[in-house]
Specification:
With 328 residues, this protein is of the alpha+beta class. Helices cover 48% and strands 10% of the residues. It contains eight helices and eleven strands. The strands form four sheets. Strands 1, 4, 5, 10 and 11 form a five-stranded mixed sheet that branches. It has a two-stranded antiparallel ribbon with strand order 2-3. The longest helix is centred in the first third of the chain and has 27 residues. The N and C termini lie far apart (50 Å). The C terminus is likely disordered.
Length: 328
């Protein structure tokens, strides 16, 4: 089957001297809508949704600072350590695992500092994160910043060369270290020529360049997880259920998707060995193992199930006949 999704370029709008990119808009909407879902779910569960609102600003900082530092250390350690000023350019390169390594401990610390039941709040965050994740990865999709290996898969992106151009692209648009990994050349988008972008990509497919789009695949995954969580949340669950399940689901999915990333954009750790893998695959294995251990512990715990169908009791001293607060 031929690829069905054409390459497109989202226009950049100018707000005075400030350029507004589709990526930034969608990431911002991810924090807004994801945070709103988490707050409403917390309120319906008998928690204080405003506590999540107070945490969001810290999560924004953690996502960009942790994500950028993680990107530098995981993907370009020699370049960043040789020129530490690169760590301050938080707008250049993000790693989702770098963001996780900062935001998860930050959230756990925040709720403990606020003397709130940690796991019920983390469950609300996990459900909101699934939606925010979808919007954030749609930002990656419109920016075309996670191209994968050449493919004729029907969900791959394709790009038709402008009339007069051939697939023999200029040297500066070809990765000479990996000659099969071409870069997007001039394309047709609704009949108009689109400027080339510095992105890894594709192969010839009957005169068409086509490749996997990892941002789009992960957006579809996160939207599916959000729908699954909404269904599962119709029944009370033990505290920590959604928080740990999110890691169990993401780890294997990310490991599989990273196998579609070209080496020229995602170098391999332990290269030239039988266990060569991308940095993302390494952390996906760690995440899967840790999440699975804690998910089993949650299922085996004797904690009282909570959720919108069975709210967490008030933190105030229980009156006669009331249940005690769910454990953190």
């Amino acid at each position: 089957m031929e690829p069905l999704i054409p390459y497109y370029q989202v226009p950049v709008f100018q707000l005075g001297p400030l350029p507004i990119h589709g990526f930034g808009v969608l990431v911002a909407l991810g924090f807004v809508f994801g945070g709103n879902v988490a707050m409403k779910r917390a309120n319906r569960s008998g928690l204080d949704g405003e506590a999540i609102n107070r945490l969001i600003t810290w999560l924004v900082l953690g996502t960009f600072i942790g994500g950028h530092v993680g990107y530098g250390l995981m993907y370009k350690p020699a370049e960043y350590l040789a020129n530490p000023i690169e760590f301050l350019k938080v707008w250049q390169g993000l790693s989702s695992f770098g963001g996780f390594l900062v935001c998860v401990p930050l959230s756990l610390w925040f709720f403990r500092r606020e003397k709130l039941p940690v796991l019920p709040y983390m469950d609300s965050l996990a459900i909101g994160l699934a939606l925010g994740w979808f919007l954030g990865r749609m930002g990656c999709t419109v920016a075309h910043d996670h191209p994968g290996t050449p493919s004729t898969f029907w969900l791959a992106k394709y790009c038709r060369p402008v009339e007069g151009h051939t697939l023999a692209l200029p040297d500066f648009m070809v990765d000479t270290a990996h000659p099969h990994d071409l870069r997007w050349g001039p394309c047709l988008d609704g009949g108009a020529a689109v400027t080339s972008i510095d992105q890894q990509v594709p192969m010839s497919f009957q005169g068409v360049l086509s490749a996997h789009d990892m941002g789009f695949y992960e957006a579809l995954w996160s939207l599916s997880v959000f729908g699954l969580f909404l269904l599962l949340d119709r029944v009370p669950r033990k505290p920590g259920f959604f928080f740990t399940l999110l890691g169990v689901l993401y780890g294997p999915a990310r490991f599989a998707m990273d196998s579609l990333r070209p080496e020229s954009t995602d170098g391999r750790w332990f290269a030239d060995t039988a266990i060569a893998m991308t940095p993302g695959q390494f952390w996906a294995l760690v995440l899967t193992g840790v999440s699975l251990v804690f998910f089993v512990r949650v299922l085996r715990s004797d904690a009282t199930p909570v959720g919108p169908a069975a709210p967490v009791p008030s933190a105030d001293p229980p009156a006669s006949g009331e249940l005690p607060s769910a454990p953190a």
